[in-house]
Amino acid sequence: MQKIPTLFVRNPDDRRHVLPEVTPGCEWVMDGYGTATRKYDGTCVLLDESGEWWARREVKKGKASPPNYVPVERDETTGKTVGWEPIAQSSFVKYHAEAVEIRTEWPHGTYELCGPKINGNPEGLERHTLIRHATAETVDPSLDIRTYEEIGDFLARHNWEGLVYHHPDGPMVKIKARDFQ
Taking 90 as the threshold, does the pLDDT of residue 1 lie above it? Predict the structure, then answer.
């Protein structure tokens, strides 16, 4: 799991927000490539190919990693390390257990764990649920929203955390509604 880059450059004076300047390497979105999908507001979990569940975990610079932690990437700007910890030791374990009860088999891959006790339940769900990233809601391609203004306007009109653009060759780029506020 590599951290997905943000489409627009973060404001160096206020890193919570973005500027109308495309992050280097993300120009393909402005060039018309890729499909936009909904970014759900929850916490990322992974079902690996051996059937083990993992929770995404960030470890701040100078802090100890939890036991059995698998680091994936270090952010040089913030000093945080992003990786996976076994779901059994995650603070989300009981919500995850409720979500997996819905069905008996799950395809391996990444999911967003959402529900009443996750991030204040911005998705408005009645129970904890796993939403597979590979099947996320797609934005109507006829809208073709790609500019700073178009994306900001679209997200202001929808109750979504953000968008993820998927390039046909695999790369992804994200942008959150709160990046514009």
Answer: no
**181 pLDDT band (50/70/90 cuts)?**
confident
Q: Read off the pLDDT of residues 27-44 as tens digits, 9 standing for 90 and up.
A: 999 999 999 999 999 999
pLDDT at 17: 95
DSSP calls for the chain: -PPPPBSEEEETTEEEEEEEEEPTT-HHHHTT-SEEEEEPSSEEEEE-TTS-EEEEEEE-TTSPPPTT-EEEEE-TTT--EEEEEEGGGSTTHHHHHHHHTT-S---SEEEEEESTTSTT-TT--SS-EEEEGGGPPBPPTTT---SHHHHHHHHHHS--SEEEEE-TTS-EEEEEGGGT-
**Cα gap 127→43, rounded to integer Å:** 15
- Enumerate the domain spans of the chain: 1-40+136-181, 42-133
Q: Specify the higher pLDDT residue, 76 or 157.
A: 157
